[in-house]
Specification:
By secondary structure, this protein is mainly α. Helix content is about 60%, strand content about 5%. Strand 1 and strand 2 form a beta hairpin. The longest helix is centred in the first third of the chain and has 38 residues. It is globular.
């Protein structure tokens, strides 16, 4: 039996964050509709990653790029499915009626040191992803203001204090203000005013924004494709295979575009009952994969992409339609910015659910801290390499390896994982909650005694999980305890099940319990999980090898101050936020003097 490590307050008051009346309002309800689910997941999968696919296809070739694209899609689908199936292993959440966040599973399934490592990786990865998204969005917004109005201003804090305005952008620096000053720009302030308040909302309350962002994504994608065909397609720009200089970028940008798995538990916790997990995950991943392939192939045949260029650079050129240039500037705020509050909300959920801190501190860490770090690193290219390497080293473990490991550990455990939850409502007092906790502790003891009796009789322990069937085991009241306990649902394969119960069991298995691979046996599912771990680990190690080798080769062959190395482009592709910005050279040459 896998026991979760939980905190106790007075009177054995078992508290998961979402069941604490003092902080329960910081979690959303189960109201996310099928349309909202589709928009949320598709935005997490695609978004800024679309503009990097053209470079990946052109530098790596369409055959290896497409193979990796569909392989990453299958791997992410399996990893997300394994993670969701692990959620059903928790007592009281077999049918997703409770709440189990990503770090709650890590706390229950891993030893204490493993939980701490996963928690640090989780917090570091999502925080740096948000910082990178904030930096790129704010700097792009500054560049857009410069292109439209001919100048952009900021409040300079260091080395001098005052208002500074620029009329042309820096050629080699992401920030239009250079890297030698500390400042607060108009773009940063505008972005903060929009995004920070939304970060304090719950996930369900953000669905309107996600739907709007999804619609904008479809409109932008359609208009860009029309522009591609208008420019004319050149098949010679798209080789079959060209795994040389751009191999690292191909591997990284494709694999890391599917870094959405860590956000899946929060969505499952707040989806409506009529949202089908299998259909939603498979349809969104399939749609996102087709979008990637379309943009990669068609975009790669429409333009030539030298090292360091991206799709928005090409779409912002004066030779393109005016509406295309405008939409290229709107791409980051419409597609990238809506994802910033989502990541903040997920961090807050996990902090509060694991009782790491209270609501105020949780909001400061999840919402305010990324903006503070971004403010301190706004000038120049600060933290770019750190942010890029953090994505390279943490995205794959969090989104592919750890979900599969959780699944394997949960399936090896006997019985169900005990979640530190109590059956209560917001109106219950602490005395009532403590009584409910005592009732669950008594129920737990009865189940353990029943397991021992079955073990002594040579049977498998207790109501263990076999995903072929479902049975409701009610270890409620006894003669000594007249107060009935709530029925608890476990999964097992009873012997000689009557036909009526078998039919009811098949119905419940079809509509409620989740299996990522219902057609496979337990051993076969284990094999698939191990294959995902091994293949994704190999791809990640290959991407690291290419990035490091190109960085070393560039440093060895350049004299003096080298130009931006190819590895920087690779690392930008590996960045979890898929850095997107309008090339400052194009803006300086055409936009600022227009």
């Amino acid at each position: 039996m896998v026991e979760s490590q939980y905190k106790q307050e007075s009177a054995a008051y078992l508290l998961n964050g979402h069941l604490d009346p003092n902080i329960a309002s910081n979690f959303g309800k189960k109201t996310i509709s099928p349309l909202s689910s589709y928009a949320l997941l598709l935005n997490n999968i695609t978004g800024p990653g679309l503009v990097a696919m053209c470079v990946a296809y052109q530098h790596g070739g369409w055959l290896p790029a497409t193979s990796l694209l569909f392989g990453a899609a299958v791997g992410s689908l399996l990893s997300a499915g394994f993670l969701v199936e692990t959620m059903t292993r928790f007592h009281g959440n077999e049918h997703f009626e409770g709440r189990v966040e990503f770090m709650e599973m890590a706390r229950a399934l891993f030893p204490r040191w493993g939980y701490y490592i996963v928690f640090i990786l989780f917090l570091f990865n999502i925080t740096t992803s948000n910082v990178s998204a904030i930096l790129e969005s704010a700097q792009t917004l500054d560049q857009t203001i410069l292109m439209v109005f001919g100048q952009v201003c900021a409040l300079e804090l260091s080395p001098d204090f005052g208002v500074v305005c620029v009329t042309e952008s820096s050629i080699d620096i992401d920030s239009v203000f250079g890297e030698n000053i500390e400042y607060v720009s108009v773009g940063f302030v505008a972005l903060a005013i929009i995004s920070i308040p939304i970060g304090f909302w719950n996930l369900e309350e953000n669905m309107i924004i996600q739907i709007f962002s999804f619609i904008a994504l479809c409109v932008l994608l359609g208009e860009f494709c029309v522009q591609f065909f208008n420019n004319g397609l050149h098949p010679e720009y798209l080789p079959v295979s060209s795994l040389n200089h751009g191999a690292g970028a191909t591997l990284g940008s494709i694999l890391f575009n599917f870094a959405f798995v860590v956000t899946v538990p929060s969505w499952v916790n707040e989806k409506r009952k009529d949202v089908r997990i299998h259909e939603t995950l498979s349809s969104t991943i399939s749609t996102g994969t087709l979008m990637f392939a379309l943009m990669g192939c068609v975009g790669a045949m429409a333009y030539q992409f030298p090292n360091g260029a991206d799709l928005l650079t090409k779409l912002s050129m004066p030779s393109q339609w005016f509406v295309t240039r405008v939409l290229a500037q709107l791409f980051p705020p419409l597609v990238l910015v809506p994802g910033i509050p989502i990541l903040s909300i997920i961090v807050r959920y996990n902090l509060l659910e694991n009782r790491v801190c209270g609501p105020f501190v949780g909001n400061m860490i999840a919402v305010v801290l990324p903006w503070l770090i971004a403010f301190l690193t706004m000038s120049g290219n600060k933290l770019n390499i750190i942010l890029n390497w953090s994505g390279l080293l943490t995205v794959v473990p969090l989104n592919f390896l750890i979900p599969c490991a959780m699944y394997l550990i949960s399936r090896e455990s006997k019985g169900v994982c005990k979640m530190t939850s109590i059956t209560t409502t917001l109106g219950d007092s602490k005395e009532e909650a403590a009584a409910a906790a005592a009732a669950i502790a008594k129920e737990k003891q009865e189940v353990m005694m029943k397991n021992r009796r079955r073990d002594s009789e040579g049977e498998s322990g207790g109501c263990t999980i076999s995903w072929r069937s479902t049975q409701i085991c009610n270890y409620g009241s006894t003669e000594q305890d007249p107060s009935p306990g709530p029925p608890r649902k476990y999964h097992h394969q009873p012997k000689n099940m009557p036909k009526e119960e078998e039919e009811e069991d098949d119905f419940q298995d079809a509509v409620a319990p989740f299996r990522v691979l219902p057609c496979l046996s337990r051993e076969q599912s284990h094999t698939v999980a191990w294959i995902v771990i091994l293949v994704v680990s190999l791809i990640n190690c290959t991407a690291i090898f290419f990035a490091v080798s190109e960085l070393i080769r560039t440093q060895d062959t350049q004299d003096g101050i080298p130009p931006p190395p190819p590895a920087e482009g690779i690392l930008e592709a590996l960045n979890p936020s898929r850095r997107v910005h309008v090339n400052s050279t194009i803006l300086s040459k055409y936009g600022a003097h227009a």
